[in-house]
Specification:
Chain lengths: 297, 422
C-alpha cells in the first residue's frame, strides 16, 4: 500500500516536472491569464470610475441611483470650471504652436545640415523629458517671478513650450531620417528655390510628423500640472489644477465629469496622432522606427 | 595617361574646373552651415533663456549665500578675518552696531532676510537680531561693544559669532550639507546632525527604495504582458497595444484621481467588499504605502511594457524553437536563449521607469500619507511653505545628480550592448 502511494506521488511529481519544463502550452496559457489580468488592472480604474459622472446621486457608489447629465450641467454652469477649461485650451494650443515651430526648425537643422555639436544639442533639447518636473517648476517659478511672468498666461505658455519641444523633435527627426535626401537634389536641379523645395518636397513628406508632434506637444501641455501649480495665479488655473483642487476639497461626481472631459480631449488628440502616424507609415511603407511616446508625467 | 606612371603634376595641381567645383562645394558647405545655425538658433536661444538659465540659476542657490552679506554688509566684512578663539574685536562690534542702526524700509527687508538666514544656523538668532535692531537707535556712534552686550547678553556667547561668520561667506556649503544630514561645527569640522534633526537621508533613501520597489514590480509584471503582446497575431496585437496605450495617454492626474476615488475609506473598493460581507470595517488603502505602490505601478506599467514590447517584437521566434527542438527545457531556454536577447529592453524599460519614479510629485501627494512623500515633495515644500530656497535648491541638486548619474550609466550600458552586438 505504501509502495503504491509512493509510486503515485512519484508519477505526480514527474508529470508536474514535465508540464513545468516542457509544456509550452501550459506556460503560454499561464502567460495569457496573467496578461489579461494585468491589462484589466490597467484599464479598470478608468472604466470603473468614469461612469460615476453620469450618476444622479452625489456619492461614489454602484449601482448608480439613476442616469443623468446633472454633473455635466453643473460643470459647465460653474464659471471656475469653464475658466479652467478655457485657460487650458488657450495655453495648450499656443504652447503647442510655439514648440512645433521651434522643434521642427531645430530638427531640420539637426537632420539636414552640418552644424557642429549635434549630439550635445540633441541631448539638451531632449532634457525636459528626464528632468524632474518639480525642479523645472521651482526654477521657472523663481525665474519668472523676477520677470513678473508668474500669474500670467504668457509665463505658462513659455514654460510649457519647453516640455513640448522634445516630443516634436523625436517625431520629426524620425520622419526626417527616413526622408530621401536625393529628392532635394532632384528638386534643386530642376530649378526649385530652397523655399519652394521646402514647400513642395520636404514639408509634404514630413507633414504627418509635424502634426503628430504638434498633437503630442498639445497633450503634454494640456495634461501638465506641476509647473502650472507653481506658476498659475487664480486667474490662470488650468483644468488639471482645478481638478486637483476638486479632488482635495469637493469630491463630488463633478470632479469625475471634469476628468471625463480631460480624457476625451487628450485621448481624442492622441488617437488622431496615432491615426496620422499609421497612415503615413502605410503610405511610406518603410518601417519607421516607432517614436517613444513618453506622454504625461 | 599620365596617371599610369604616377607622375606628380596631375595630383598636386588642380585644373581650373577642379578648383571651381571645390570652391563651390566649400561655398555650399558654408551656406549649409549658416542655414543650419539659423534654423537651430531660435530653439537654442529659447532653451537657454527659459530652460537652462532658470534651472542653473535655481541650482546655484544651493550654494549661494547673499543674505547676510547684503543685510549686514559691514559686519560681514569685519568678521571674515576673525580667528574664532575668543569674542571678536571692537571693530566687529562697531560694524555690527552700524549695521543694526541702518534704517529704512528697504534695509529692514534685507535685515529680515539676513536674520532668517542666521536662524538656519542657530534657531534663536532671528529673535536676537530683530530685538537688537529695535534697540539699535543708540548704536550709530562707536564704541559699541558695551552697548551691544547690554542690549542682549547673548552677544557675549561665542557660538553666535561663529554662526555669523559661517553665514557671512558669499558661498556656503550649509544647504548642501543639510541636504545630506551633515552640519558644519564651530571649528569648521563636519559631523552628522543629531538624530532628531536628521531627515533628508531618510527621505532620499525612501525615494530610492520606493522607486526600486515600483521598478521591480513593473518589470516583473510587464515582462509576461509584453511577451504576450509580441507573440499575439497582428490583429490581437493592435487591440492589446491599445489597451496599454489608452491608460498611457490618459493624464496622470486623472489616473491618480481614479485611484483616490477607488481606494478611499468610503470608496468603491471598500464599499464593494463591505457589501459582499468580506470585511466589516473599511480597510485603510489610501494615504499609506500600499495605496502609493498600487497607483504608482499602475501609472508606470506602460512605461515598461512599451520598450519591452518593442524589443521583443524584433526577436525572431526561431531561436526559441531551435532551442526546444534541440531538447532544452522551457526554463533553460528562457534563461539562456530568450532573456539574453531581450535584456536591453528590460534594462531600458526598468531604468526609464526608475528615473521617472525618482522625480514624481503628484502621485505620492494625492495617494500617500505624510510618511510616503518623496524628495520632490520636500523641494516643493521648502519653496512654497518655508521659503527656504537654498535648501530646496540643494535637494534639487541631489535629485538632479541622481537622475543624471543613472542616465549616464544607462547611456554607457546601451553603448556597450550595442558594441558587443547584442
Amino acid at each position: 500500500m505504501v509502495g503504491f502511494r509512493a509510486k503515485l506521488w512519484q508519477r505526480g511529481v514527474n508529470a508536474m516536472k514535465d508540464v513545468l519544463l516542457y509544456s509550452s502550452i501550459f506556460w503560454r496559457r499561464l502567460g495569457w491569464v496573467f496578461s489579461i489580468l494585468v491589462l484589466f488592472f490597467l484599464i479598470a480604474p478608468i472604466i470603473i470610475v468614469l461612469p460615476l459622472s453620469f450618476s444622479s446621486g452625489s456619492f461614489f457608489s454602484y449601482p448608480l441611483p439613476g442616469i443623468s447629465m446633472r454633473w455635466y450641467s453643473e460643470l459647465f454652469d460653474n464659471y471656475k470650471w469653464v475658466l479652467a477649461l478655457k485657460n487650458s485650451m488657450i495655453i495648450a494650443v499656443s504652447s503647442a504652436a510655439l514648440s512645433t515651430v521651434l522643434g521642427i526648425s531645430a530638427s531640420i537643422a539637426l537632420c539636414m545640415t552640418d552644424i557642429p555639436f549635434k549630439k550635445a544639442i540633441y541631448a539638451l533639447l531632449l532634457a525636459p523629458l528626464v528632468m524632474p518636473l518639480v525642479i523645472v517648476a521651482v526654477a521657472c517659478f523663481l525665474f519668472y517671478s523676477q520677470l513678473g511672468l508668474t500669474g500670467s498666461r504668457l509665463g505658462l505658455i513659455l514654460a510649457h513650450t519647453a516640455l513640448g519641444v522634445p516630443y516634436v523633435i523625436i517625431v520629426a527627426s524620425a520622419a526626417l531620417k527616413n526622408f530621401d535626401m536625393t529628392l532635394i537634389k532632384a528638386a534643386r536641379s530642376l530649378g526649385a528655390s530652397s523655399i519652394m523645395t521646402f514647400k513642395r518636397v520636404i514639408f509634404p513628406a514630413i507633414a504627418p510628423a509635424v502634426f503628430a508632434g504638434a498633437i503630442f506637444a498639445f497633450v503634454s501641455s494640456f495634461d501638465e500640472i506641476v509647473i502650472t501649480i507653481f506658476l498659475a495665479g487664480p486667474e490662470q488655473v488650468t483644468l488639471p489644477v482645478r481638478l486637483l483642487e476638486g479632488i482635495r476639497d469637493e469630491m463630488t461626481p463633478v470632479v469625475v465629469s471634469a476628468a471625463v472631459i480631460m480624457i476625451m480631449i487628450s485621448m481624442g488628440a492622441m488617437l488622431v496622432a496615432e491615426m496620422i502616424r499609421r497612415r503615413s507609415e502605410r503610405l511610406s511603407k518603410t518601417g519607421t522606427e516607432r517614436p517613444a511616446l513618453l506622454a504625461g508625467k | 595617361m599620365g596617371w599610369a606612371f604616377g607622375c606628380g603634376p596631375s595630383l598636386t595641381s588642380e585644373t581650373h574646373w577642379q578648383k571651381r567645383s571645390r570652391m563651390f562645394a566649400l561655398l555650399r558647405k558654408k551656406s549649409n552651415l549658416l542655414f543650419g545655425l539659423g534654423l537651430i538658433a531660435p530653439c537654442l536661444i529659447y532653451f537657454c533663456v527659459f530652460f537652462v538659465w532658470p534651472i542653473g540659476n535655481m541650482l546655484y542657490r544651493g550654494i549661494d549665500n547673499p543674505e547676510v552679506s547684503v543685510g549686514m554688509p559691514k559686519t560681514s566684512v569685519a568678521i571674515a578675518s576673525w580667528a574664532g578663539d575668543e569674542l571678536p574685536s571692537d571693530a566687529v562690534f562697531n560694524a555690527l552696531g552700524q549695521d543694526l542702526a541702518l534704517d529704512g524700509r528697504e534695509m529692514g527687508y534685507k535685515r529680515a532676510a539676513a536674520a532668517r538666514r542666521l536662524n538656519y544656523e542657530i534657531s534663536s538668532f532671528r529673535a536676537l537680531i530683530m530685538e537688537s535692531a529695535r534697540a539699535a537707535s543708540k548704536l550709530d556712534q562707536p564704541p559699541n561693544r558695551q552697548k551691544i552686550l547690554e542690549i542682549d547678553e547673548r552677544w557675549g556667547e561665542i557660538k553666535y559669532w561663529h554662526a555669523m561668520q559661517r553665514a557671512a561667506r558669499p558661498i556656503t556649503p550649509h544647504y548642501m550639507l543639510t541636504a545630506v544630514d551633515l552640519m558644519e561645527n564651530d571649528d569648521g569640522s563636519i559631523s552628522r546632525v543629531p538624530e532628531n534633526r536628521a531627515l533628508f537621508i531618510k527621505v532620499l533613501g525612501r525615494t530610492f527604495w520606493m522607486s526600486t520597489v515600483v521598478t521591480l514590480f513593473c518589470v516583473l509584471i510587464a515582462f509576461p504582458v509584453a511577451h504576450g503582446i509580441a507573440m499575439a497575431s497582428a490583429k490581437t496585437r493592435s487591440l492589446l497595444l491599445m489597451l496599454v496605450l489608452l491608460p498611457f495617454w490618459t493624464s496622470l492626474l486623472v489616473r491618480t484621481s481614479a485611484w483616490v476615488i477607488l481606494l478611499q475609506p468610503n470608496g468603491l473598493i471598500n464599499n464593494a467588499l463591505i457589501s459582499i460581507g468580506l470585511i466589516e470595517k473599511p480597510l485603510s488603502l489610501i494615504f499609506n504605502r500600499t495605496g502609493v505602490y498600487v497607483a504608482f505601478i499602475h501609472v508606470m506599467l506602460p512605461f515598461v511594457v512599451l520598450p519591452l514590447y518593442s524589443v521583443m517584437v524584433g526577436v525572431s521566434k526561431d531561436y526559441v524553437r531551435a532551442a526546444y527542438s534541440l531538447g532544452a527545457s522551457i526554463p533553460h531556454t528562457f534563461l539562456k536563449v530568450y532573456l539574453p536577447m531581450v535584456w536591453p529592453g528590460v534594462w531600458s524599460g526598468g531604468l526609464l521607469c526608475f528615473v521617472v519614479c525618482l522625480g514624481y510629485y503628484i502621485t505620492p501627494l494625492l495617494v500617500g500619507g505624510s510618511k510616503d512623500q518623496m524628495i520632490s515633495y520636500f523641494i516643493a515644500f521648502f519653496t512654497n511653505r518655508t521659503i527656504n530656497w537654498g535648501l530646496a535648491a540643494s535637494l534639487a541638486i541631489v535629485l538632479c545628480l541622481s537622475v543624471f548619474i543613472l542616465l549616464a550609466i544607462y547611456g554607457w550600458f546601451s553603448r556597450k550592448t550595442l558594441a558587443t552586438g547584442r
